[in-house]
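Final report, Chapter 2: Outcomes

The project's central promise was a pipeline that accepts a single protein chain and returns its three-dimensional structure in a standardized token representation, suitable for archiving and comparison. That pipeline is now operational. To close this chapter, we reproduce one record exactly as it appears in the project archive, with the input sequence first and the structure output second.
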Amino acid sequence: MERLQASVREVERTLDWLPSWAVSLLVMTVAVLLARLLHTIAFRFVTRLVKDMDLFWRSLVSRTAGPTRMAAMILALAFAAGVAPLNAREADIVRQLLTISFIFLMAWFAHTAVHIWVTVYLRRFKLDAEDNLLARKHVTQTRILRRVVTTLIVIVALAAMLMTFESVRQYGVSLLASAGVAGIVLGLALQPVLKNLFAGIQLAITQPIRIDDALLVEGEWGNVEEITSTYVVIRIWDWRRLILPLSYFIEQPFQNWTREGAALIGTVMLYVDYSVPVDVLRKEVETIASRSPLWDRKVVNVQVTDFRENVMEVRILVSATNSGRAFDLRCEMREKVIAFLQKKHPGALPRLRAELGPRPDAPALMPVRPGSNGAPDEAAPAPAPRTLATSRHG
């Protein structure tokens, strides 16, 4: 170390014709370049060392490339600032920059550690599995908490950086001294941000929704595609995207079709004539369900649920492993049942019945003489014309 400092002083004497700030800048630049070179060599060596190791070590090395490079540069700058010919003002500026850089470095390390932990933790869960309820639960909880922690890291880092400035520190002290009114004003200004932040924490703990959940919200059906720190993205069945704030799922009612499991019971309603053979229809529905690869072999049922003026209401229940398969199974059941009725029992389709005949209380028709072109046998006497009597007075 003493030899290095002596070498630096020798360089300064050689460059005494330059301004002191130029010499300091040159020393710091050389220190940063040397630090970057040493880091590149060390990083390549460590990368080759862990290329055959577990994913954790490979992820650790690859994700820490940026933070470790910055740490090496900060150390080099700190050493160069100690040997460079800086005056008091320049030394204060460099010290301020190093402090801010160190705070940023700590925040970067914390964010990287959170990312590595989430990656390693979620390796055990597969969202593309047939029964992915446990995977969706952990993935949702972990991603929401990661975003909340990242937000807190950014807020704390920015606050620490601002507090390194004397003017901002004095403002913070005065703000704490008048925390009553200022706290209310600040709370009102940050209400949307804080509302979504706490909603995210509540969603992570209670989990009313999870990644890939099937929801019926705002009259639209779709799956939860992404949960951020401020909003939720719903992928609707026709590939549109519905964006809703996090607080919506805390304050508004909605339907979650996969809260405890992905399996669903689909309903098919038929309105058929009273003459339909229900037992035959029930056997045909069971046959259609047993031949369909969409049915999960759990629920199939046919019931007459209502009688109406002209038809009777028949409800068919079939179950499937998820909402998408349940929808397709319902469509298949409708098509094949109506084809069966059209082919085997066409009279079972809805019909409108009417009975034509004389009413019991209707007057009898007058007899018609043959060959008289519809004229009655005896013509009724025409009524005598009515006259109005008038009189004159005077």
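Archive annotation: The first helix runs from residue 2 to 14.
This record, like all others produced under the grant, will remain available to the consortium after the project formally closes.
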